[in-house]
């Protein structure tokens, strides 16, 4: 993992620790108040019956773009899970079909504008760029320097995807991310426990007992039986 990747990972981990790794799905940025309620964009892509669907909301191309984007925000490394390992794209996909349904047009428009920007700048879509060019695109968006964005702005779209990446990494696995407690293990959070013994409460060392089995793990166990 490059120094750039390590720095980005460290930033998101510190941010997650500051917000509380067990905060569930409540990491909603102020930017939502500015974007929710915007008029639907004329010509915005709408999912349809013959589209290649991914999960609940994204079609295949949208899912591939978000998967690549979030992996650059939270890159994996040997022994350190990244966004792909934690199923972040699955979390975002489910959220946009449920709790964050009011952001569907925001994502459709943002992804369409991202595609236009990448094709005009590099003559290829985001998912086909190498890691360094993907990082350059993300940096331009974060700094508000990426052309071709109107609504949402490049910085707004970046901010929301970064927030959703953190949620998908560190929220309770019941919401579809944090697969196999990957994010919790990364930051040393023990997850839900049935009870803590008096020894647990008095112990000054890091708590190492595994989190209780979540719904994802239960489903996998049932499938194997």
Describe the structure.
- The chain contains 11 helices and no strands.
- It has 225 residues and is mainly alpha-helical.
- The radius of gyration is 18 Å and the shape is elongated.
- It starts with a helix and ends with a helix.
- The protein is 52% helix and 0% strand.
- The protein has one domain.
- Helix 5 crosses helix 8 and helix 7 (131-142) packs across helix 8.
What is the element layout, followed by pairings?
Elements: H1 3-19, H2 31-35, H3 60-73, H4 83-86, H5 88-96, H6 104-122, H7 131-142, H8 154-170, H9 182-187, H10 198-202, H11 215-224
Helix pairs in contact: 5-8, 7-8
What's the number of structural domains?
Answer: 1
Low-confidence runs of at least 5 consecutive residues: 21-53
Taken in chain order, the helices and strands follow as: HHHHHHHHHHH
Mean pLDDT: 78
Strand content: under 5%
The structure class reads: mainly alpha
**Roughly what percent helix?**
40-55%
Distance between the termini: 38 Å
Please give the number of β-strands.
0
Report the sheet with the most strands, covering strand number, pairing sense and barrel closure: none
Based on Cα principal axes, name the global outline: elongated
Count of runs of 4 or more consecutive helical residues:
11
Radius of gyration: 18 Å
Give a summary of the structure in a few sentences.
The protein has 225 residues and is an all-alpha fold. The chain contains 11 helices and no strands. Helix 7 packs across helix 8.
Give me some keywords for this one.
single chain; 225 residues; mainly alpha; 52% helix
